[in-house]
Predict the structure.
Amino acid sequence: MSSLARSRRFDLIAFDWDGTLYDSTAIIVRSIQEAVRDVGGTVPSDKEAAYVIGMALIPALAHAAPDVPPEKYQELGNRYRFHYLQHQNDVSLFAGVLPMLNDLRERGHLLAVATGKSRRGLDEVLHSVDLRGMFDGSRTADQTAGKPHPLMLQELMAEFDVPPERLLMIGDTTHDLQMALNAGCASVGVSYGAHEPDAFHELKPLFVAHSVAQLHGWLLEEA
């Protein structure tokens, strides 16, 4: 084992996508609200809509709009996709994400994405922001189980033969941190995404970063 490998605390770093690497929280919130309005439901507040970010799409929409009947879920999902697609080119990676990812790759970390997005949605956005080849693996909610179920992380650990203590999950929601806890992995929270960080403490993240720059610095020192 090289000295670099010995100096790493984590072999695999898994990132949530929306609100962690990708500045899309506001557009997702607006798309949820417009979709619920379209099908005649009670429009959720910004906070209520932001809470479900990171969950699989239909469970997220059902949680955000409890008065919408199940027979309208397909229409609700279609309307969400319609509104999101109108604005998907208006969002981008948070400033500083690419240098951070490049530095982690240079240090020899395996990088993965664990997201509530669909496989199609993640593949499209990875192509559009020219991140092909940056990530060694990924899991989406429609491939496995939605957060906070640990299956995404369990599958990534199996794929790369990494034990729980060598995987770090980074995310902006309690769903991300609970998923890590359920999988027996460490986590780091970021406060600049969908959830207020007050609820993070009980989920025992190693650190809460208030900016990408702060996250970058912590990872280089501690990961």
Remarks:
- The mean pLDDT is 91.
- Residues 73-87 form the longest helix (15 residues).
